[in-house]
Amino acid sequence: MEYRRENEQLNLVGETRMVYEDNVALWYDAITDKIHKGRELKTIAQTFYRNQNILAVVPLQESSESLLSRLSFKDKYLPVIERMTENRKREWLTIRVLIKELIGEEKEILYNSLGKPCLSDNSFHISISHTRGYAALILNKENEVAIDIEKTGSKIDNIRKRFLNEEEENSISQTNEKIHLLLHWSAKESVFKRLNVENVDFRKHLHIRHFEPVSGEWSNLKAHETRTEYQHCFVVNYFVHEDYVLTYI
Question: What is the 8-class DSSP label of residue 159?
Fold first, then answer.
């Protein structure tokens, strides 16, 4: 965790900051391009500010009742969440509380036919991900984004044949196998979300160039897709935490 004093300039280009001062987060307002202090972000575990992206990783610890009490559209939300499990309620409500705290107002989230989220007023591009015990969010004022988070305890080896092609399988590290597998899976999830098209085969259409995984600091890997006629290439940023891996585009 890095601490900075209020009058210090925060360089948002090409750097990562998890910024707290006296348990009050400094947060980046993408509308005014300024750093602000004084909004208490009770929900946030870690917030990253990278190249105009606002990313947050949130522990799902607060009860759904407590989360709901912090939102204004309670009557609108209750019919939606009443049949959800407690864990699903926490995931659903935590993201909405987090958006409210990060950008200063409550926003309605809509979903397209493929399940891709967007804000009803289109004020930010948005992507959301959940894993056991955590939720992740990315916001960007100008550009399309995608994010994925995967718990490090996931039994990823059981599904490796679903997403690794032969070349990727042969490149998997023998000394850091689980993390390498998780990064391949998570990166392909982020690419899939960014593509926003149907009938994507992770083994056939999504490809990860060989890379050596790095832990404890931001790094990136290269990916491309062969599902569309454009055959897009992507730089997928990633962070390996002791409890999860996080990827985003």
Answer: G
CATH architecture label of 150-248: Alpha-Beta Complex (3.90)
Q: What is the mean pLDDT of residues 222-230?
A: 98
CATH class given for the domain over 20-145: alpha beta
The helices-and-strands tally (H runs, E runs) of the chain is: 7, 14
Instruction: Tell me the per-residue pLDDT of 26-64, one tens digit each, with 9 for 90 and over.
Output: 343 333 444 444 444 444 435 555 667 888 888 898 899
Enumerate the β-bridge partners of residue 56: 47, 137
State how far the Cα of 218 lies from the Cα of 51, in Å rounded to an integer: 13
The domains of the chain are located at: 20-145, 150-248
At 102, the pLDDT band (50, 70, 90 cuts) reads confident
- Identical fold at 20-145 and 150-248? yes
Burial tier of 194 (Cβ tally within 10 Å: 0-12, 13-18, 19+)? buried
- Residues with Cβ within 8 Å of residue 77, at least 6 apart in sequence: 68, 71, 93, 96
CA quadruple 146, 66, 70, 84: dihedral, nearest 10:
50
